[in-house]
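Email to the structure team, subject: Glycosyltransferases model.

Hi all, the expression group asked for a predicted structure before they design truncation constructs. Nothing fancy, just the tokens so they can compare against earlier work. One-line instruction: predict Glycosyltransferases, return tokens.
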Amino acid sequence: MAPFGGFDDARSSDFSLEIKPPVVNVKEEMKDVVIPRPDNVVVNSVKLPGSGEEVQGKFDYVSRKLLIVVTPTYNRALQAYYLHRLSEVLKLVKSPLLWVVVEMNVASAETADILRKTGVMYRHLVCSKNMTYIKDRGVHQRNVALEHIEHHRLNGIVYFADDDNIYSLELFESIRSIK
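Reply from the structure team: attached below.
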């Protein structure tokens, strides 16, 4: 049954089936109440590492150097395939790893989407150097990556990995042993 006139005339509180409890000031009513602990609850003490007992053999943390993999890339037919293939290898490398991908002239949405989905920590840079000789493209892209690393004071081992090459995990593990 609806009231005469438009439905806008009816207030929402006229048809509300919600039961609202009365507002109670908990602080005043509960200030002298003590809640007893049930007898079937057991409370054990906890000892933290460094409080007398040393934890030995429970953690396998090994401090590793940051590995910075620089990949210059450009828009071409198999670019997505190459980047995806390289990202699958980099996913398997033990952290910490930073993948610096440098594109020419503009950051493409496709490359950004591929990088987002890899699960690898990355930086997406653009080399906007205007040049006439195409063979210098990779050199300028690598220089942009090195300037970025120097500007942000990233401390690690830099490896230049082209996206159209194939790499093994042993390579990246052996790079970490460099002193």
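The radius of gyration is 31 Å. The helical segments are 26-29, 79-92, 109-118, 137-151, 169-176. Ping us if the truncation boundaries need rechecking.
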